[in-house]
Amino acid sequence: MFDAHCHLPDNKIKALICTSKSEEYALAISCNASIGLLPPFSKTDKELFFSVLKQKATLNIGEIGLDKRYPNMSEQIEFFNQGLAFAKESKRLVSLHIVQATQTALSVIKQYTPLKLIWHGFCGSYETAKEFNELGGLISLGRRSLKSKDFERLLTLDFLLESDLPQGEEQENTLKALYQTVAKIKHLTFEQLEAELDERWSIYKA
């Protein structure tokens, strides 16, 4: 199985490990995890974010994005622009965190394509996912995605699956259950779905 979005500590299964705060960076570096930053954040946090990425060229970016549950949207948009610009310049893959800000996020993303982007925890519409695929991104579906009215249609697009949990037994069991659910919907064996997603990820990250 491949986990398209999980969290520290280090992982025993194939995964894209993401962070969201500067306190996690030391451990993230030791396991070659992605470096991310979500609100609330300070000027010092943002400076450290870019400093670490400049020093460690092998690290991907994630999770960054826009979250309307926090009031500082103008600052978030400015940082999101800076993060995507850096990703484009340094050719990094980006894991996106988008909450209640879909259209704003898409308008920013369009300024920087082509980029390698994964929309973590996607719960939106089929139309939004299709547009994101057409921009070159992959949606990543997790437990909350199952509640989407378009969930089965989303499985006709380019997608990955995620646990969004720290490494461990719960992560592995959650991801396995999600794989089983999706395999049943798509009329595939577990192994066929696993091979499909492994191939999609290997091609995308190359």
What does this structure look like?
44% of the residues lie in helices and 17% in strands. The protein is an alpha/beta fold and 206 residues long. It has a single domain, classed as TIM Barrel (Alpha-Beta Barrel), CATH 3.20.20. β6, α6 (151-154) and β7 (159-161) form a beta-alpha-beta unit. The longest helix has 18 residues, at 73-90.
Brief description of this entry?
The protein has 206 residues and is α/β, with parallel strands linked by helices. It has helices at 25-30, 43-55, 73-90, 102-109, 126-134, 151-154, 169-185, 190-205, and strands at residues 2-7, 14-18, 61-67, 94-99, 117-119, 138-141, 159-161.
Give the CATH H-level superfamily: Metal-dependent hydrolases
Class from helix and strand fractions: alpha/beta
Question: What percentage of amino acids are in beta strands?
Answer: 15-25%
Rg over alpha carbons: 16 Å
* Biggest beta sheet summary: 5 strands, parallel
Number of domains: 1
List segments where confidence is low: pLDDT < 50 over at least 5 consecutive residues. none
Named at the architecture level, the CATH assignment is: Alpha-Beta Barrel
The strand order across the widest sheet is 3-4-5-6-7
- Taking the alpha carbons of the first and last residues, their distance comes to 18 Å
**Shape from CA axes?**
globular
Roughly what percent helix?
40-55%
- Mean pLDDT rating: 96
> N-to-C SSE series?
EEHHEHEHEHEHEHH
The third-level CATH topology is: TIM Barrel
Question: CATH top level?
Answer: Alpha Beta
Total strands: the figure is 7
The number of helices is: 8
